């Protein structure tokens, strides 16, 4: 069973919006208060990541939730959302807490869809790493299947492999492969057209989710022994 992303936000509209964005990657569970979030963290529900609003009952109540999360999940992705952009003291406190608790701090006014795409992909990767000793091998199998299914060229497949396995993009290809930014973008556009997706992250999501399904699939039944 897939682990879930915990979304801790007291504004129901924002919570539903985040759920709509992130359920493309992992199932989501929502909490509107610090206490209900801590109940989820301490339950049998397994989590692959957390997004928490820093200001729930108070300006930094979300930090207590994140501390509880880190008490059980040491390396899973975490993001803190805050609307305290004009309060320098509070922001400094949140920056220190985010650094200590290994979380990304995002001002709500600056939040973009690509932030959540990156976070969702990180949660899928966390699930693969937690559930399978050789997750890279599963991802490579899924990449090969995806490349064959969409008739990707060797160069297009190379772009997807780098993005899916190591999150490497244009600068890596320019520095390590001598491929110009224009050449990289041409490969990406061709890949997107063949795969009928709109962004490279969408293609990566398809590959990682395919790998995750492989990780959770039951082992094949043994072949019957003849002569018995």
Account of the protein in words:
This protein is α/β, with parallel strands linked by helices. It has two domains: 126 residues, Response regulator (Rossmann fold); 83 residues, no CATH class. Helix content is 57%, strand content 11%. The chain has a five-stranded parallel sheet with strand order 2-1-3-4-5, with helices on both faces. Helix 3 links the parallel strand 3 and strand 4.
- Following the backbone from N to C, one meets helices and strands in this order, namely EHEHEHEHEHHHHHH
Task: Summarize the main sheet.
Answer: 5 strands, parallel
By CATH, the architecture of the largest domain is named 3-Layer(aba) Sandwich
* CATH homolog superfamily of the largest domain: Response regulator
Shape verdict: globular
Major sheet: arrangement of strands: 2-1-3-4-5
Helix content: 55-70%
Calculate the mean pLDDT score and round it.
88
Whole-number tally of structural domains? 2
